[in-house]
Amino acid sequence: IKTIGVLTSGGDAPGMNAAIRAVVRRGISSGLKVKGIYKGYNGLLNEEIIDMTARDVSDTIERGGTILYTARCAEFRTEEGQRRGAEVCKKHGIEGLIVIGGDGSFAGAQKLANLGINTIGVPGTIDLDIACTEYTIGFDTAVNTAMEAIDKVRDTSTSHERCSIIEVMGRNAGYIALWCGIANGAEDVLLPERYDYDEQKLINNIIESRKAGKKHHIIINAEGIGHSEAMAKRIEAATGIETRATILGHMQRGGSPTCKDRVYASIMGAKAVDLLREGKTCRVVGYRHGEYVDFDINEALAMRKDVPEYQVEVCNSLSHNYSKLNK
Ligand code: F6P
C-alpha cells in the first residue's frame, strides 16, 4: 500500500484533529503518501482531496473541531454514491481509507471495503455510543465541558432557589447524562436507556427535597428524552417552584480536547495506519480492557451496548433523593 486517505464524518468531536495528525505523521513516517479528504463522504464524492505533509498538521492537536471539516452525506447511503466513492478513491490512488466518525460513518466504510478500498474506522463521537469500544474520541472533552457548565447553572439555581433541568447531548445514548449525574451530584438523572417515564415521581422528589431544605434541584435530562422546556413548565405548575430549562447544545462539541482525548486519538489514529500497512481492511479500532484492539466492521456494527447497571445504581444511590426514577 502506497497511498492512504483520511476523512472525518458525522458530528465533529474534540480530538479528531489529534487523530488526523496521527494518521498523517504515522503514515508519512512509514513511507506512505497521505491525502486529506474534506467534508467527509461529501468531499470524497466532490473530489475535495489534498496531499498532506507533516507540517500541515502542526499546531492542530490542541484545536477543537476538525481541520478536514465534516458532513453527514445522504448520497453516500445509496449504492450509486458508494460506487462513485470507490471510483474517486481509485482515481486518486487511494488504496486505504481511514474514516474517523461514528457508526453511520463506519457503515459507509464497510460498503467501500466491499468495493475494493481498504478501510479502517476510528471511533470519533462525543456520544460514547459505539458498542465495540469503551472509549470514543471526544467524549472526555464533551463530558468535562458539560460538567463545568452544569456547575455554573447550579450556582444560579441555588441563588434563586430554583429547580433546573439541564439537557445534555448524546443522541439516543445516556452516557454524557450519566457521567454528569455522578460528577455534578445531580438530584435526578433521566436516561433514555432506563427511563420509565413517571413525571409524578420526579415532582414528588422535587417537593420532598425542598421540604428537606435543599436550595436547588438539578435534573440532568438526556437529549434522547428531550422536551426539557415543556417539562420545566409542567414541573413549575405542579410544584410551585420556579423551574428553568437549559439546553447545553453544541457547546458540548467544541473546545480544546482534554489530554485523554488527545492521547487516545493519537494512538487510535496511528493504529489505523498500522492496520492498513498490515493489509487489513473493514476493521474498526477500539479500546477494551486497557488495550487498543480492532474488530471487523460488520461485527462491530452488530454489537449492542447499554449504560452499565452498576454505575446507574451508584448514581441513584448518591443523589439527594435516593431517586427510584431510573430503576
Ligand atoms: O453525535 C453527536 C451529536 O452531537 C449528538 O449528541 C446529537 O444528537 C447530534 O450530534 C446533533 O447533530 P447536529 O450537529 O447535526 O445538530
What do you see in this structure?
The protein is of the alpha/beta class and about 325 residues long. Helices cover about 40% and strands about 20% of the residues. The chain contains 11 helices and 11 strands. The chain has helices at about 15-30, 40-45, 80-90, 105-115, 140-160, 175-185, 200-210, 230-240, 260-275, 295-300, 310-320, and strands at about 5-10, 35, 50, 95-100, 120-125, 165-170, 190, 215-220, 245, 285-290, 290-295. A 7-stranded mixed β-sheet has the order 3-2-1-4-5-10-11, with helices on both faces. A 4-stranded parallel β-sheet has the order 7-8-6-9, sandwiched between helices. Helix 1 (about 15-30) packs parallel to helix 9 (about 260-275) and helix 5 (about 140-160) crosses helix 6 (about 175-185). It is elongated and about 70 Å long. The termini are far apart. Residues about 320-325 have low confidence and may be disordered. 6-O-phosphono-beta-D-fructofuranose (F6P) binds near residues 126, 127, 169 and 253. One of its GO terms (biological process) is fructose 1,6-bisphosphate metabolic process. Keywords: Allosteric enzyme, ATP-binding, Cytoplasm, Glycolysis, Kinase, Magnesium, Metal-binding, Nucleotide-binding, Transferase. Its cofactor is Mg(2+). One of its GO terms (cellular component) is 6-phosphofructokinase complex. Pfam families: PFK.
Q: What is the straight-line distance between the termini?
A: 52 Å
Estimate what percentage of residues fall within beta strands. 15-25%
- Are there runs of 5+ residues with pLDDT below 50, and where? 322-327
What small ligands are held by the chains?
6-O-phosphono-beta-D-fructofuranose
Structural class: alpha/beta
Q: Taking Cα atoms only, what radius of gyration do you get, to the nearest Å?
A: 22 Å
Mean pLDDT, all residues: 95
Helix content: 40-55%
Q: How many helical stretches?
A: 11
Major sheet description: 7 strands, mixed
Run of helices and strands: EHEHEHEHEHEHEHEHEHEEHH
Main sheet strand line-up: 3-2-1-4-5-10-11
Task: List how many beta strands DSSP finds.
Answer: 11
Shape descriptor reads: elongated
Subcellular location: Cytoplasm
Keywords: Allosteric enzyme, ATP-binding, Cytoplasm, Glycolysis, Kinase, Magnesium, Metal-binding, Nucleotide-binding, Transferase
Family: Belongs to the phosphofructokinase type A (PFKA) family. ATP-dependent PFK group I subfamily. Prokaryotic clade 'B1' sub-subfamily.
EC number: 2.7.1.11
